[in-house]
Each structure stands twice: as C-alpha cells, then as structure tokens.
Design a protein that fits this description.
- This protein is of the alpha/beta class.
- It folds into three domains: 9-411, ANL, N-terminal domain (Rossmann fold, 3-Layer(aba) Sandwich), CATH 3.40.50; 425-535, GMP Synthetase, Chain A, domain 3 (2-Layer Sandwich); 543-633, no CATH class.
- Helices cover 28% and strands 23% of the residues.
- The chain has 16 helices and 31 strands.
- The strands form eight sheets. It has a nine-stranded mixed beta sheet with strand order 2-1-11-10-12-13-14-15-16, with helices on both faces.
- The radius of gyration is 25 Å and the shape is globular.
- The termini are far apart.
- Mean pLDDT is 83; it is low at 528-590 and 596-634.
C-alpha cells in the first residue's frame, strides 16, 4: 500500500464514492431512516465548514460524547475532512472522568447528545481549553454565560451553510498526508488510567484493506451491525471504517445493546455482518431469541477478549452462524490476529491478519519456541504513533516498529495463536504457570455457567491460588460451587483447578464489555463476596509478624509502612494493590484506596511533600498528575 503525498480518510471513506457513481447507495440506516452517500457527504462538508467558521485550525481536537447516530458519525468524518482530530470517548465515563480527558486532550470543541449533557456540564469545569459545545437532539450542557459558546446541532449546520455561502473554500478537503493526525482513541481503562492512542489518516485505510477486505471479505452489498459503539476502536472500525471503505451500509443503534434491541435491529435492518464481544455472545446464547434470529447474517466476528471455545460452539449450534474470533487493540486500531472463514479453530484467535507480523517473545526479548508462552508483539502500519503526553508509557508499549500488546500467548506449529490472558493475569500455582483463560474455558463448558473469571488470590501462607468468580445461566437451577470445582478437576490438571468458586450476579466490565480483573480481585480481597472469605486470611492475620502497627479500615487490614515491611506476604490477599514503594505511579485500584485512606498519607510531588488529605476530608488524588513519579508515605 504505497501512500500518496496527500491522503485524507474522509475522501477514502466517503467522498470518492460519489466520484465512482455510488452517491445514491445507502450509507447509514437507523430506526429513523436512511442516509445516502451523497447526503452524508453533503452533511460532512457542512459540519467541516462550521468547524472552520468556529476558528478551528489543523490538528485541533474535537471531542465527541455522543450516542451512535448520524451526527456522531458525521462529526467524526467532518473532523477528518477539515484536518482536525476526532476524539470519541466512552459515554460511560462520569463527568469527573470526562473532565480529565477533555483537559488531557486539549479539545476546543465538544459535541454531545442530550443524555450526556449533565456529565459534560460537570466535565467542562475541568477543561478550560474548551471553547464551543454542540448539543445534539435536545437540551445541551448547562453553560455559564460568557464562559464558552453553546450551539445546537441545527445552529451548527446553519453556521456551516453560511460559511459555505460566504466562501466555498471553507468546505474544501484538508490537504492532510498519510501521517497526519486523524483520530485519538482513549484506552478502555482495563490496565489503568485511559491514555490517548494517536492514529494517522493512513492507519484507517490499513485496517480496512487488511482485516475488513482480506478476512471479512466485505463488499458493497454487505450491511454491518456492531454492538460495540463508535467510541471504541473495535466499534469505529465495524460501524464506520469497514462499511464505508467499500460503499456498504452501516446500521447505527444509539441504545444500550441488549438481546431484545439486537433482535429488533436484526429483523428490521437485516445485517449481513455482525460484530460482538464474548460477553454479549454469552448473553445472546442465554436469551430467548428465536433460533433463526441471525438468518440474514453471513458471518459474526468477535474481539475485545478471547472467545472461549465452548461459548463459540454454543452460539453456532444455536443460531447457525460461525464466529470469527480475533484480537486487536486500541493501539493497533483494530484486529491484527484472527480466525478466517473456512479456517476457524475454536479456542484460538487464529493467525496473523495479512499485512501484520507477530512475535511471541520471552521476558529477555528472545523468540519463544512453539507452544511456549510469551508476550505477544505486533508490527503493522496501523500501529499508533504513541500515547499523547505519555512518554514513558509510549516507550514501554511502542518499541520501534513493534507494539507490545500486553497479552500472553502461545503459538503452535501451524501458526495458530492461543491467548493465555493479559501478561499481568498469569498466576503460579504450586510453582507452575496457570492461564486464567484455560480455567475459564473449562468452566464455560459446564451447561450451568454463563460467565467466568479466574484470578489469583493468596492463601493463608501467602501463596497465590486460582479462585473462580462465576455467573450462572438463568436456567441453571441450583449449582453448588463445589460441583464446579469438581468439574474443573475432572477436565484439568489438579493444580489448575480453582480452589474455590464464588457465585455472583454479574462480573465487572468496562463500557466496551471487557472484563475488569482488578475489580474481580478487589471483590475477593475486600470480602464483598461471602464465599470468598474462606480464601482470605482474617484481618489480623499478620499483625504479630509486622514490626509496625497496622492500619485498619473497619475489619479490613490495609497497608503497613513499606519501609519496615518484612515482606511476609500474609497481608497481600487483603491489600487491593501491591505494597506502596518509592518512585511508583498510580495503578489499578490505587486511586480509590488512597482516597479512602487519605488521612494517613503524604505525597511528594515535584520535590514538595504535603498531606494528601485531612482526617474526614476529601482526598484530591484525582488532581494529581498521575504520570509523574510519586513518593507516597506516612
């Protein structure tokens, strides 16, 4: 794929279809109606002209906190068209979290739909660089007079019309190049605070011409429907990049996906390509949808996390459609490793997508042998340029042309890859590595299990042992936890079987449906699940062995002074994160814990030590620059 000197993703995805005679083909279907390629192209030109009339310049950021509707899609394309940077963010974030992303990105314009106006109102208080807010579909954020300009969607379009009437050049396609910024996507937060992965215009074409064209075989006759939303890397590829790259049709659904909503869209829109995530496929299998619900669908795809083989088989047996399981990442923009039509091996994520190179590496950087676990690295033209304002994290993840995925994999002699979990998910039991994914797959083979998550929890001797947290199927009836332990022992080596099974109503997930293992650990560690208590030592288990007094929060033992800790290991099961050490950064779970115990901590930031919080007062952990090394102590 040789890149021409000028390349703009909006022309590649949209405008060229008019030149090639596909202007009257339907680009978007929603419950409200249809939009043709010609209509979408005209809308994008109006929005791009409006952006310019607002004073936006090349590389300025436009943040989108919006539901999956035509204005959201058009706003993204208009940013590409005008040489701006589209920053779609999760609609599940709180106002405080959104404010952090607005400030981090330096967005000058925020586009939001009515249902997220309240959160955006809160966020704007932390984002002084925002100058304009555009409200779609009703009441917008509560904006104080004189602070910034508020616009309705209709007023924005009218502004674009006036700008085009005064100077048609305001609607011109920006002369971007293949390496120009096009899209920033914030990571989903499964491994810590979100970071913005910066993607080029050419990266968009790469994911279309590799996975979409060569694996999915997408054509202009296809109609795509994705339960993953546009703010997610997986979703923006499924619902925008892939269908528009060939002049196909995309189905947009603003509502939260449920089996009932999906069935409605399947019946009304008759999609041919369906995109989901494993947790949603599990929900579909457990639903009361008719067996012919997917009659129009020729192929399903799954990503976000590995698809267990038992779940894959259940879905295909129930609905008669195969699922292509693959894996991608926000940093790689979309899927780089996948099963293919006619070449599906359940329990694996397939082989490298054409155009990508994969390596499984040992800890020392050497290549792992066949069937030897190692860290997965990927090289491809869609890899992000790095993280915005996260130099240290960029150096760790983006290593030359290679991207460290953070996943542990094994590759067999035929080139099929099997995920063992995140690098940080692997645990040792009896000195032998155990893959949570393998144990979860065995649990999912049980007819009474809908979802499962396996994490390591230390026993009374401070040794990690696998513990399973399970959601039962609606029709499972009474399934004793002990039966599930026995089920695993029958199908796995005994050291891999969970020492305990905890039954819960639901598993914690991100807005994009990924399992949040650190919250599963916290569920067990903090004793919120009654059946977990047997695996966690009593709150005073290590008091006699610690040379300093311990802090208690209720009945839960917390940190001791790390400088005097003898590292006995006995307190680890009831600590939500690793012991605090010098020169470390906030990680998963730290922020809330420190906030809850602010009175006991000081923070040294930029050489200045000060109390982190007052007894009975609110800690300001969220105000810290968390990429700055912190020294946290008493």
């Amino acid at each position: 794929m040789a890149d021409e000197p000028d390349f703009n993703a909006a022309r590649y995805l949209l405008h060229r279809h008019l030149e090639e005679g596909r202007g009257e083909h339907v680009a978007v279907r929603t419950a409200a109606g249809e939009t043709t390629y010609a209509g979408l192209s005209a809308l994008v030109e109006r929005v791009a002209a409006a952006y310019r009339a607002l004073g936006l310049r090349r590389d300025d950021r436009v943040m989108l906190v919006a539901s999956d509707e035509v204005p959201m899609l058009a706003s993204i394309l208009a940013a590409f068209h005008a040489g701006l940077v589209a920053v779609p963010v999760s609609t599940m974030f709180t106002g405080r979290e959104l404010g952090g992303l607005m400030a981090d990105s330096g967005a000058r314009v925020v586009v939001c739909t009515e249902e997220f106006a309240e959160a955006v109102t809160v966020a704007l208080g932390s984002a002084p660089e925002v100058e304009h807010v555009v409200a779609v579909g009703g009441a917008g954020p509560d904006v104080a007079p004189g602070t910034l300009a508020a616009h309705s969607w209709e007023n924005l379009l009218a502004l674009g019309d006036r700008a085009l009437g005064e100077d048609p050049r305001r609607g011109a396609l920006a002369a971007t190049g293949p390496d120009s910024w096009a899209l920033w996507l914030y990571t989903s937060g499964t491994t810590g605070l979100p970071k913005a992965a910066m993607h080029r215009h050419a990266s968009i074409r790469t994911v279309c011409e590799t996975y979409a064209h060569q694996v999915l075989g997408i054509t202009p006759d296809d109609t795509t429907y994705s339960v993953a939303k546009l703010f997610f890397a997986y979703g923006i590829g499924n619902s925008l990049f892939f269908p528009l790259s060939v002049g196909a049709t995309t189905v947009l659904e603003p509502r939260r996906p449920t089996p009932a909503v999906v069935h409605e869209r399947l019946v009304q829109q008759r999609p041919t390509l369906f995109f989901g995530v494993p947790t949603f496929y599990a929900a579909l299998v457990a639903s009361d949808l008719p067996d012919d619900a997917f009659a129009s669908v020729r192929m399903c795809a799954s990503a976000g996390e590995p698809l267990p083989a038992p779940l894959q088989r259940r879905f295909t047996e129930r609905f008669g459609v195969e699922i292509l399981d693959g894996i991608g990442s926000t940093e790689a923009l979309h899927i780089f490793l996948s099963n293919s039509p006619g070449d599906i091996r359940p329990g694996t994520t397939g082989r490298a997508v054409p155009g990508y190179d994969l390596e499984v590496r040992r800890a020392d950087g050497s290549l792992a042998d066949v069937d030897e676990p190692g860290a997965l690295f990927v090289r491809g033209e869609s890899n992000a340029l790095g993280y915005w304002r996260r130099t240290d994290a960029s150096r760790q993840v983006f290593q030359g042309a290679w991207l460290s995925t953070g996943d542990t994999y094994v590759r067999d002699a035929e080139g099929y890859h099997r995920c063992l979990g995140r690098n940080s998910d692997m645990l040792k039991a009896g000195g032998i590595w155990v893959s949570p994914a393998e144990v979860e797959s065995r649990l999912l083979e049980h007819p009474g299990v809908r979802e499962a998550a396996v994490v390591g929890v230390a026993d009374g001797d401070g040794l990690d042992k696998p513990v399973a947290v399970v959601v039962l199927s609606d029709d499972a009836g009474d399934v004793p936890a002990a039966d599930l332990v026995a089920w695993c022992r029958d199908g796995l080596a005994h050291f891999k079987a969970p020492r305990q099974v905890v039954l819960v109503d639901e598993l914690p997930k991100t807005a994009t449906g990924k399992l949040q293992r650190f919250k599963v650990r916290a569920l067990l560690v903090e004793g919120r699940a009654p059946e977990a208590e047997a695996s966690v030592p009593a709150a005073d288990a290590c008091v006699d062995e610690c040379p300093v007094d311990c802090i208690y929060e209720g009945s839960r033992k917390s940190y001791i002074n790390p400088r005097e800790c003898i590292d006995c290991g006995a307190c680890e099961p009831v600590c939500p994160v690793e012991a605090i050490a010098q020169d470390r950064r906030l990680e998963e779970g730290d922020e809330q814990f420190i906030a809850d115990n602010a009175a006991f901590f000081t923070v040294t930031l930029a050489g200045r030590e000060e109390p982190l919080g007052d007894p009975g007062g609110a800690a300001k952990v969220g105000d810290l620059e968390t990429d700055t090394p912190l020294v946290i102590g008493w």
